């Protein structure tokens, strides 16, 4: 027995020694922090500078944390990024900090891949979540928890063909214009100019019932009951409004071709597209035959001049071994003014930090790129649109139901069906579907 | 022989259960890893994610972790069964360790396979023989088996399901995989049940053996009693024969001599009275010799103890002998100094005391017996008192009858009182100084 005890003691001692040696070695080894990102723009616009920002952030971070090395894979296209993440995830090698696509956010949070940031945020006194646009911040929330921080935001704006309006001697709409104002302009614009019996000038292109609904003041998704109500009067109003606009076209459908030719007055456009195609070098690529600008969306009777806001999110892997460093790096990317200013400089979106988005410096950067004499969206307007904008729930179910709704609405428009009764039937189907999904 | 066979079968079944569990656990973890690799190879990862509820983190490391835990489990079994099969502390510690190891494996596999608990239960059943702790352990076992169920836990926790990984494959492969999985799970349960049946059999076997031995013992006991009765009878017969022989040899011989001598005297008495007197003296001598002979042959019937020791010592020896062999306590109080009487008196006293003790024990079921002996004038008083059940009505049993006869032969009296326990009072007059010589 004594012999056994001696042997046991010896082996425990040896084990402790090895463990100590391993810990010592680990502590003196350089920590590698993995970062997952995709190349190119999140907003599907051409972008040449996607690495510039990250490289700068990595350099800054490595300088301030000499023991840390940040590693990232370059050259993953946005369309491959989701698969790349999933592969890494299955392999158990998910990066410590990573960009999250809209389509992945819901799945990743439900799988527990994303770290709950609430504790980190509460424990960091230098961090104030109020500094972010609340809409942008909310895109990273789910079930009352913050899982990701916004890196840059992009609101949707209304593209206005200034040349067309000028030709028809219509005044450029004001920022607080309404549905009726827009309908009036569309009615005036829609005509057959070359007298070939077919309309060749149209009011809107791609303006959907969703865009109209956002400005109607209604709310579709009830988070508490997990239900969507399509029979709400404001949903019906929005669809009816779209139907009225559609009726102006006398059954003719508007194409991208018509728009590119300069024959359409209005089209929803993301801020990223606005920045890309309004500035050199891409300015010469698109929309070159006419003068154009962007304004807010027209408001419904009870609504405001707002629109959909998107954000590019970044999160932390819930299984990261370097929680503190990952948080520091995430903050470096999303929460430092210098980095956020780079969003203005090198990217196409709007910084997620309010102070940077509304800064004079930021406005100057945008102005610099523009042609002289071009009017630039004022930063106050931009901030307003973002702060009050609509964020769509990222729930997979929500997306599926909205796609079904899109189909239903286009059917109503094409087949000239009654809006109220069609939507009532549709609501019954959706309620049943959502009930089953619970 | 039978028990040995069952034991080796139980050992074999245990190894089979272990092997099945090793196959299942390693199979599941390797299957998950292989499936993930396959999914990654064909770039179907994102689509696969849509169909699952939870991620298997670090699938490759998990294989090694499972293997390590299984190795520890096997080691613990070897240490318990082979190295310290009789050390209770080691057994208990290793069983608890087994339980924790199993739960770690179950958690690693996200409750997709809880059959490994059966392995622990099989060990527990084998070692825990104590009734109460066995029930507690059974409750713990059943409770944990139910609690460790995937369907139940997946409601409230994020757990991955092996089904999701199986359903990645085409329908035909799915059927194949599912049946393998189900066969392994069922086989494990079946082997466990067989194992339990064997354990029950083994314990039933032990009980049967004990019953059999008991019966044999009973038989032998009865035989012994018969033998002892027979031996008693034989001794009696032998004694009777000896007595007959003695009487024939000594008394017959002497009496014949006396008769012949007296006949001679009768013829001589007229003619020669002097010669007759001589002849009568001779007859007297022969008679005395005859008495001596009879005394000798009687003395051969005396109890062994009395033959060798004094009466007091003999009674004391009897008392200590009985105290030693039975639960009855006997207290002997002798207030007579120099307890030395004639042999027949000693015999009678010894027998009366012996008989009294036997009666008190046999009929009275007494726990304590007090024997007092004292002297009153020329009489000796013997009292045998017990705290047994006594008897309300005196029956002329064998014991009391003998006692009465013996004491009557010495012209003494004996009284019995069965109202409170049982009291025997005997009064025997002693023939002091009266000898045959």
TrEMBL record, chain A:
The organism's place on the tree of life at top rank: Bacteria
Gene3D superfamilies found in the cross-reference section: Periplasmic binding protein-like II (3.40.190.10)
InterPro entries documented for this protein: Bact_solute-bd_prot1, SBP
Residue spans crossing the bilayer: none
Endpoints of the signal sequence: 1-21
Keywords, ordered alphabetically: Signal
The name this protein goes by in its record: ABC transporter substrate-binding protein
TrEMBL record, chain B:
Keywords for this protein: ATP-binding, Coiled coil, Kinase, Membrane, Nucleotide-binding, Phosphoprotein, Transferase, Transmembrane, Transmembrane helix, Two-component regulatory system
Organism: Lacrimispora celerecrescens
Gene Ontology annotations for the cellular component aspect, listed alphabetically: membrane
InterPro entries: HATPase_C_sf, HATPase_dom, Sensor_HK_TwoCompSys, Sig_transdc_His_kin_sub3_dim/P
Catalytic reaction equation(s): ATP + protein L-histidine = ADP + protein N-phospho-L-histidine
Protein name (database record): histidine kinase
Domain of life: Bacteria
Protein EC: 2.7.13.3
Molecular function terms, GO-annotated: ATP binding; phosphorelay sensor kinase activity; protein dimerization activity
Coiled-coil portions: 210-240
Domain Histidine kinase/HSP90-like ATPase stretches: 344-432
Pfam families cross-referenced by the UniProt entry: HATPase_c, HisKA_3
Transmembrane segments: 12-36, 56-78, 135-160, 180-200
